[in-house]
Design goal:
The chain is α/β, with parallel strands linked by helices. It has one domain: 3-Layer(aba) Sandwich (Rossmann fold), CATH 3.40.50.720. Helices cover 41% and strands 19% of the residues. It contains nine helices and twelve strands. The strands form three sheets. Strands 2-1-3-4-5-9-12 form a seven-stranded parallel beta sheet, sandwiched between helices. It has a three-stranded mixed beta sheet with strand order 6-7-11. A two-stranded antiparallel ribbon has the order 8-10. It starts with a strand and ends with a helix.
């Protein structure tokens, strides 16, 4: 089948593209570099010609609820409209476990995005995933004050981005769920400890301080509102197994 991937160059989107190609599907990446602008809808009609399923992994870097909501409603609105015109038979959205329990800030945008899919006339599936293993690395890079890296406290059950990609491709090639499915990593972890372990794995020798960041979203994460339900499907790869892959990559980078 032919699958279009919105956000196909991102952390998860690139994994979706690889998983789809391994499964023998024809893949179209929806990105500005390929002549498609989700924020305006430009190029979408041509890109979705002959497409059987769409997987939406497009993302924005903001913690502002208004900006996140505006982005997701705009991009997914254009995507769903074009998919309808192209008679796409299945649209699949990647969302986040717990957005309905912990809806402030960035999660408000994801919850609004989910509602677009639920109200859509197209056959749909929503796959909610917990944070990815890569989230610890992202927080290490982003949460810093000069030489000091902050390690936000939060309860999380991280999953491998590669496994999320596989789940999304499986969902897209199957019968539309018309419901929400949860996937999560194999076990609960403390985010601040993951960040510290990541720092050691890349040989960072500066200070890494565990902190409780302000804001309703982070407070909700510390309370465990983004942990999966008992019905969630569990992944295989642990954070430490993922980290073992990061270490040799770091050693190779130092060598070059």
């Amino acid at each position: 089948m032919k699958i279009a991937v919105a956000g196909g160059t991102g952390v998860v989107g690139s994994q979706v593209v690889e998983a789809a190609r391994r499964a023998g599907h024809d893949v179209t990446i929806l990105s500005r570099s390929r002549g498609v602008d989700l924020s305006t809808g430009s190029g979408l009609d041509g890109a979705l010609e002959g497409v059987d399923a769409v997987i939406d992994t497009a993302n924005v870097s903001t913690m502002n609820a208004r900006k996140a909501t505006e982005f997701f409603e705009t991009t997914s609105g254009h995507l769903l409209s074009a998919a309808g015109r192209a008679n796409v038979s299945h649209v699949v959205l990647l969302s986040i476990v717990g957005v309905d329990c912990n809806p402030p800030d960035y999660y408000a945008g994801k919850l609004a995005q989910e509602q677009l899919y639920i109200r859509s006339s197209l056959p749909w599936s929503i796959v909610r995933a917990t944070q990815f293993h890569e989230f610890a690395a992202q927080m290490f890079d982003q949460a810093r004050l000069g030489p000091l890296h902050l390690a936000p406290r939060a309860r999380t059950q991280p999953i491998a981005a590669s496994e999320v990609g596989e789940h999304l491709v499986t969902a897209a090639s199957g019968t539309p769920l018309q419901s929400v499915k949860e996937i999560a990593g194999p076990r609960e972890e403390e985010l601040s400890e993951l960040i510290k372990r990541y720092a050691r794995a890349i040989d960072h020798r500066g200070p890494v301080l565990a902190v409780s960041l302000p804001g309703k979203q982070m407070k909700g994460m510390r309370a465990g509102l983004n942990l999966p339900s008992d019905e969630a499907e569990r992944g295989r790869q642990t954070f430490d197994q993922w980290l073992a892959q990061v270490r040799p990559q770091n050693a190779e980078n130092r060598a070059t």
